[in-house]
Design brief:
Layout (H helix, E strand, L loop, with lengths): L2 H26 L14 E2 L2 E2 L13 H11 L21 E4 L5 E3 H5 L4 E6 L4 H17 L4 E6 L4 H11 L5 E3 L4 H6 L7 E5 L5 E5 L6 H12 L4
Parallel strand pairs: 5-6, 6-7
Antiparallel strand pairs: 1-2, 3-4, 3-7, 5-8, 8-9
Length: 228
């Protein structure tokens, strides 16, 4: 066999190896969603799973968020009753309030009353449809149930802009690291709603979007025994 033939065969094997490598790269490359906007996330149920180690993005300082907070005009976060102490999985978790940046001891703030905790993110389509229904439910429930939203992405400024666009003014906390979701055992999908008993224990974790205030009221009645 001539040297030219041997070189040609070697070239063919090299090309075949390159094709195999390229095929493997394509097979494991992330698909779906806007990966540049939500790094480390994967699309599930129309949303992405939070996978960050930071509570909020470095650029989202209090000064930078002053304007978006004013535009969103959110309700203040719940505060602990005198002498209240957190219990259950949320005890000791402290996060920033979306309304004003103040620190909130979530477990203590929710202690003593049934609570609905809703996990969402600004890029989650089903969340955008669910939040107005949740807002309506909160007005209906009044003081019977504490409703708290939890933003699951580090980009707090984007959350405030989204809430202003939706016209939703619910109290909420910023949790880009997913500490509350981890504590209650929420699956890595959005939206998710956790129903918390007055004693701080978890009654239910519901990985589903709600379409109406009536659906939310039915879930609260079923799992918390509160008619609203």
């Amino acid at each position: 066999m001539s040297p030219d033939v041997r070189i040609s065969n070697t070239g063919r094997w090299s090309l075949a190896g390159l094709v195999v490598v390229l095929a493997l790269v394509v097979a494991i490359w992330p698909r779906g969603g806007d990966e540049s906007d939500a790094p480390g996330h994967s699309d599930v149920m129309g949303g992405n799973t939070a996978a960050s180690a930071v509570e909020r993005a470095p650029g989202d300082t209090d000064a930078a968020l002053a304007g978006p907070r004013a535009a969103a005009a959110l309700q203040p976060c719940p505060t602990p009753a005198p002498g209240a102490a957190g219990a259950g999985p949320l005890a000791g978790i402290e996060l920033g309030c979306l309304a004003d940046g103040s620190r909130v001891d979530v477990g203590a703030a929710l202690a003593g009353k049934p609570a609905l905790v809703n996990f969402w993110a600004y890029w989650c389509g089903p969340c955008a449809k669910e939040l107005p229904a949740l807002d309506e439910y909160a007005r209906r429930a009044g003081d019977a149930v504490t409703v708290l939203t939890v933003h699951q992405d580090p980009k707090e400024g984007n959350a405030l802009a989204a809430l202003a666009e939706y016209g939703v003014h619910l109290p909420g906390v910023q949790d880009g690291a997913g500490r509350i979701a981890t504590a209650v055992g929420a699956p890595k999908v959005l939206p998710v709603t956790a129903l918390i008993r007055a004693d701080g224990t978890v009654a239910a974790v519901l990985p589903q979007p709600f379409d109406s205030a009536d659906e939310i009221a039915a879930a609260v009645s079923e799992y918390l025994g509160v008619a609203t």
